[in-house]
Each structure stands twice: as C-alpha cells, then as structure tokens.
Design brief:
alpha+beta, 2 helices, 22% strand, 21% helix
Length: 114
C-alpha cells in the first residue's frame, strides 16, 4: 500500500477519507464531498478545509464537532487537495486506492515525477 499520506492521521481508502485524532475519528465517503473542492489552502497550511455536497453522509465519533478540517501532516497541501479532487471526480479509480499501480497512475495523471 502507498504511504504517501501516512503519518498525518489521514487515510484515503476506496470508500472515502478517514482520519483519527486524539478526540475523534471521522469517515467521509467520497459522495459526501463537493465536486469542486476542497479549495487549495496556503502553501504552509497544516489542514485542508473540506467542501461537502452531502454532509449528512459524514460519520463522526468522539468529542469534537468540526469535521471539515483534515490534517495535512508532511504531505504538500496542494498535492493532497489535487488527490482528493481527482478521486471525487473519478470514482472509477477509487477501488484501486492503496495499490502500487494506482499510485503510479495517479502520480502520472497529476504530473508528479516519481
């Protein structure tokens, strides 16, 4: 499995985004996300702000209520934004998330040298 965003507390999975912090765990199915988001943050951002089309699909467990901010960690915030936008726009590629073949395909589509 690809480790591009490990260490952030964020996982991209075929069924959506999932992250855990000390106070909550959140699952955001791909259909919950707005097709034109998330917006690109500042280059120094430590979080992305998600845009929802169907927020009722989001599942949260824990103390915090805010589920629109996700951690960036050591990943470039624009790269993470572009990856999320790609999978929202291309559901046909979601099943392969986590495979080496999909990592290579995605990096090529996004124009990232590997």
């Amino acid at each position: 499995r690809s480790a591009a965003w490990q260490g952030t507390g964020l996982r991209l999975r075929p069924d959506g985004l999932w992250w855990r912090s000390a106070f909550q765990s959140v699952h955001v199915p791909w259909p919950a996300l707005a097709p034109d988001g998330p917006p690109r943050p500042d280059l120094q951002a430590t979080h992305l702000t998600l845009a929802y089309a169907r927020p009722e699909l989001v599942r949260r467990h824990g103390l915090r209520r805010r589920v629109d901010r996700i951690p960036v960690g050591r990943v470039h915030p624009w790269f993470l934004t572009d990856v999320i936008r790609h999978y929202v726009a291309h559901p046909e590629h979601r099943a392969a998330i986590g495979t080496e073949e999909e990592r290579r395909r995605l990096l090529g589509v996004l124009g990232v040298a590997f």
